[in-house]
Amino acid sequence: MDYIVCFDIGGTFIKYGVINRNGQMLFKDKVETPKSDIQKLLPELLVEKIEILQNEFLIVGIGISSCGLINHEKGEILFSNNLPGYSGMKLSEILFNHFKLPVSVENDVKSACLGEMWRGAIQGKKNVVFLTLGTGIGSTIIIDGNIVNGSNYLAGELGHTVIVNGGRQCGCGRRGCYERYAATSAFVNDFIEETKKNGEDVENISGEEILKLVEKGDPIASAVYTRFIHYISLGLSNIVHLLNPEAIIIGGGIAERADQFIQDINAEIKKEVMPIYHQDQDVLVFPSILGNDAGLFGACHLTLKKLSHLQV
Ligand SMILES: [Zn+2]
Questions:
Q1: Contact, 147 vs 141, CB < 8 A?
Q2: Sheet (strand 128-133) strand order
Q3: CA of 5 to the centre of ligand 1 (A)
Q4: 173: CA distance to ligand 1 center in Å?
């Protein structure tokens, strides 16, 4: 049996794993992302990990899922917001020159979406929108089975479509962007703000913890939650009218273990979209199945595709 070694490079951690052709993950670990001298330390770290894994597994390809704007054809990091010094790295070339193995490099949200298409929640579907709710909103659009890249790999940034005219300031420079209302961070910030108004001082709380308070009937959490569901659904309804997808998959910690959360979004979307859009299907929104591993599976799938082209 031969294996693909896959990495999911984020701003804080690099997750990595070994996956076989059938999509079974046989090894998984993570390591902190180097904080300085990325151009030197990051490739060194990847090389070190691959060499260690080569002692145990017959590695036939390398798959990289990475934060940032990626040219997947060249395997190059065009721009990274959260890892200074990473922009411009020719990751594919560096790893190919060292190992002489096929290397694929793709953006992490696109990789996660491909992972869900291969082994997760979107198997067999051809028109799909994939979102991850976290600090911001990452998103990918699939039409006729293909990722929509746009002319400069920039297509599908749903997080920066405006849903409130003149609304909250966004990091992108505009006001009222979707992610300022519908990302998990917005949910948490709203909750903290509302509790402060009530004279309480909550500093550190996660979206999942607030969901637990909602379940217990906490009035502040419930009010913030109702608004959050509305904003998420408002943005998704725009997507439904624009793209008429078969399914919308939501990833991110908050979506993966919260059935009620997904049900509430489905119910709210029904109120927002024209009835003809949901006459054939009751449920449009589904949670991601693979969670944090989706990027690794997507990276593996892309490398396997590359291998099969090479073998033809
Ligand atoms: Zn924005």
A1: yes
A2: 146-147, 137-143, 128-133, 247-251, 285-287
A3: 34
A4: 6
Query: 42: phi > 0 → left, psi -120 to 50 → alpha, else beta; which?
Result: alpha
136 CA to centre of ligand 1 in angstroms = 9
Calculate how far, in angstroms, residue 186's C-alpha sits from the geometric centre of ligand 1: 13
CB atoms within 10 A of CB 274: 10
For 212-270, what is each residue's pLDDT tens digit? 999 999 999 999 999 999 999 999 999 999 999 999 999 988 887 778 999 999 999 99
Residue 288 alpha carbon to ligand 1 centre in Å = 24
Domain that holds residue 238: 123-288
Residue pLDDT, tens place only, 180-223: 999 999 999 999 999 999 888 888 899 999 999 999 999 999 99
- Find the 161 Cα to ligand 1 centroid distance in Å: 7
Distance 101 CA to ligand 1 centre (A): 38
CATH classification of the domain holding 203: 3.30.420.40
Secondary structure (3-state) at 114: helix
Q: Give distance in angstroms: CA of 8 to centre of ligand 1.
A: 24
Residues 269 and 297 in one domain: no
Residues 12 and 101 in one domain: yes
pTM of the predicted protein model: 0.90
CA of 185 to the centre of ligand 1 (A): 14
Half-sphere exposure of 60 (CA within 13 A, CB side): 17
pLDDT tens track for 130-177: 999 998 999 999 999 899 999 988 899 999 999 999 999 998 899 999
